[in-house]
Each structure stands twice: as C-alpha cells, then as structure tokens.
Amino acid sequence: MKKAAIYLRVSTKKQAAGDLSLPDQKRQCEAYASDKGYEVSEVFREEGKSARTDNRPEFQRMINLACAPHRPFDAIVVHSQSRFARNTKDLLNYTEKLERNGVVLLSITQDLGEGETADVLRTVVGALDEYQSKETAKHVTRSMIENANQGYWNGAKPPYGYKTYAAETRGARIKKKLEIDEHEAEIVRMIFHLYVFGIADSGPMGVKKITTHLNEHGYRNRQRNPFRLQYVSEVLRNTAYIGEHFYNRRDSRRGVNRPKSEWILVRTPCIVDDAIFYSVQEKLDRQHPLKTAPRLVKSDILLTSVAKCGACGAAMRKQSGKHGQYHYYRCSKKCDSGKTACKGVSIPMAELDDIVVTALEDTVLKPKRLRKMTEALVARASEKNEALSARRKKLDGEKRKTIKSLNGLYECIAQGTVELDATLQQHLKCLQAHAETLKRQLAHIDEERSLPMDRINDQKVDAFGLAVKTALRNSDNRAFARAYVETIISEVVVTDNEVRIKGPNAALMQQTTAFAARGELVPSFAQEWRARKDSNL
After folding, report:
1. Which letter, b or e, does each residue of 162-195 get, where b requires 16 or more Cβ atoms within 10 Å of its Cβ?
2. pLDDT tens for each residue of 98-144
3. At the fourth CATH level, which superfamily is domain 2-147?
C-alpha cells in the first residue's frame, strides 16, 4: 500500500492554541488519503509559521525525508496549496524537487490532476495565493496601525511592568489597553533606583551589578527565569515607563528599524519619573562601549569624554607637544583625518580644566544656588513619599493575603483534608516565592522612604559644595576629580571664542543627598577611584 505524509500548518500561535484549525485539517487530510488508497505514515505539524518563506523547521524536515534514498512516503497531503507555500517561487521549486524524487503533492481542496495542464493550474493557483496573502497582510497592517492610532494594544507581549485589560468590545472584537502590573512595576522601579542611587552603601550600580543583585535576591523575570544583562538593559532604555510606547517601530521581516516618521505613539501609564529616566539615559549614553572607549572611561584626564569640539562635535583628546612638556585638548577628528575633516579646536589642558572648574565653583557650587536646588528636592521628596506609602499599603495587603493562603494550606495538609500531590506542591512553591518577592519589594520601598531628606540642611549643603570644590582642585587624585566632573557635567563644548558647559540638576541633587547620608563624597560614575588608596578621604 502506498504511503503518504500529512502537512498541517497555521500562521499564528493563537490559531494553534485554539486547537481548531490543525485538528480539522488533519481529519480532512486523513479522510482524503484513505479515499485515494494511501496509508498515513507521518504527520508534520507547523504551529505559528507563515508560508511566505520556507524557513519552517517541520517543513524542511518533511522535504529532507521525502528526498531521502529510502523515501518513507510517496505523497504529501495538504488541505490547500497555501498550507504548503504562499510564495510561488517556493511552491514551484519544492513541487519540482518532490517530483524528481517520486513524491507527489496532493491538495484536498484543489485537486488539479497531473500533467502539463496541472502544472499550469498549480502556477496560477500559487500566484493567486501569493497575491491574496500580500493583500491580506496589507489590510491587517492597516487595521493594526489604526488600532494603535486609537491607543489600543495590538496583541504583542506587553513590556515588562505592564499587563493588558479589555478596554472596549466592538462586536466580536475585544480592544485592549495596557495597565500597570504592580509586581513587575516594583521591580522596574527598583532597577532604575539601583542604577541611579544604588542600595544602602553600595553606590549607584551598573547593569551587570543590578542583574547580579536581582538574581542573588531571588527576583525572576516574567518567565520565572533569572534576569539577564540584555533584559535589564532593555528595561532601562524602554520609553514605555514614561508613558511613550512606539508601535510600528521595527520591520520584523527585514530586521531593521523603520523611519521615525512611521512610528506610532501609544500612551502608556507611567511607572518611572521623567527626571530619573532621562538621568539614566544620559549615564547609559556616556558609558556605552560603542560610544566611549574603555580607555576613556578609565582615564584620569579631567575632561576626557565630556569635552567636545564646537566645530564638528567630535570628542577632544589629549595631545602632547615638545616631547611631553605641554599638553592640549584637541579635536579628535582633526587629529585622525587632518584639517580637511575639521578646522579643529585646540586649547591647553590646564587652561580648559581651570575654566571649567572655576565656572563650577562660581555658579553651580555657590551655596545660594545649591540651597535653592535642594529645597525643591526636599519638596518633591515629600510628594514621592506619599506615593511610596500608597504602593507599600497595597503590597502589604497582598503579602498578608498570600501568607494567609499559605497558612490555610499548611493547616489543611496537617489535618489531612487535602493531599500533598505534585500539583499542590507546585502551587505552594509559587505562593512561597510570591510571598518572598513581596517582602523584598516592601523592604526596597522602606529603604527609598528612608532617604535622608531630613538631614539636608544649609550646613550640609555648604559642606557639600566645599567638599566638591576641594576634590576638583585635588591634583593628587585626578581620577576622583574626573569622576565628579562626569557626575555633574554632561558636556563641555569648546569653540574658538567660548566654552559652554552643560549638566543635569538631577545628578547634582543626587550627590547632595548621598553626601548628607554618608558625610563624604562618593561620585556616582567613578570606576575604582579608590584603587590602591586609603579608604578614608
């Protein structure tokens, strides 16, 4: 008896999860094979794969078996040609390959017969399937874009920290939007907090250290797996946390980003404050390995990585003259490519260092300015504490509820009213892990609420300003001075006529808070600034 293989395919995971299309295809294909006198030897199932390409594991496995010397089947039965391929070129190439190996393709809804007429009809039907597929894709894309324009979620997995809810029903369609998932959102807030402030006396953490901290303390991602560096990095970069998710940003077929003009803004509930988010972006940009070489990150030259040429925007680097007797900041583009690339800016290193430090002393670090800035910080802190208290109350209620459920289960197990089987053991394990996560989140909120705002007074502010001035003028520890420059300055633009200095207020406020807590300077972005030195300043 001749043998046949059945190939089943649905385009989306949702269709496969529904378990309707695949069983129906299988039933019809089995009946057709039996009527034609074939015995079904194998069934190939392709779930959530488009037929517009041949990049389908089960499809390729089936073709390889069909072309093998032992040839385990004589025919491949499909519901329709579109299940086999929606690309005319692939359809013709693979049917020809099968025929060369003595295997025929049979479509139960498109019985085209055999011979040259069948080949022509197959080509026509294949072209129509391909055209229909492209038209359907256009309509689906247009519909999804309109859905996003109206502020609805299009069905992809929500960003970490969010979940979907049914916002509206239109006929049989349920329109969804995003809302905050409080458990995940607490971890998102923690990641941002650790990156900017750190925890206890750790100082601000990098992405790797945050990842290690989360995993060591038992936090897990949405799939209940340990966090990875890329996952944490993506969280820190995601604009959804400040209310801006962009749909249609990436062309998934080609694997490239679309022009910004094609992006569609979908508003999302905010999880992170704008100030802390943009402070994080600035630090990430500054320390990105593709933007700042490691030698520059570790350099103790005061303005390395922040000094920019005002003519072309390139970084300025140290260059020596007279056999190392004199040192200058010079435009790196001119150094690398000559005067034709940039006319260049050159300034003695000591002169630019003094200009910048003096400007900081005379403006940013003036006691009056620092006091005014910290007053605004303390005022905002009281508002933030109210929000933290509300979050803590909600999490505490859930913790008590979880512990109550656990205790109830423990009592039932002890009394023998329920059997401790594998399912119950797994449920208990999940509840225990959830309770521990809630405890850690509450502890983190308590730490945030305990930031020493009450210690920030005029005396502390004045002492902080004096300490920074002393550090910036300290010629014995330039790495420390440079770390502080990078903390409070984001850019020094140098032209022939002027020097423009830019920097974020948030970073300076953060350092004031840290000084009030510790009584010493600890620059946020310093890398081993105390290496091989006494731990006391």
Report:
1. bebeeeeeeeeeeebbbebbeebbbbbbbbbbbb
2. 888 999 888 888 776 665 666 666 677 766 766 666 666 666 667 77
3. Resolvase, N-terminal catalytic domain (3.40.50.1390)
